[in-house]
Amino acid sequence: METEKIYIPVVAVCPVREAADHRSEMSSQLLLGEQVRVLDEAGSEWLQVQSLHDGYEGWCQKIQLAPLSVPCPNIIGYFNGNYGVSNVNGQPMNIFMGTPVYENRIRAGVYDICFDGLAHQVWPVEDPAGWVVPVAMQYLNTSYLWGGRTLAGIDCSGFAQMVYRQLGIHLLRDAYLQAGEGHSIGFLQEARCGDLAFFDDTDGRITHVGILLNDHEIIHASGKVRIDDIDHQGIVSRDQQKRTHRLRVIKRYF
Question: Is the pLDDT of residue 123 over 60?
Answer without folding.
Answer: yes
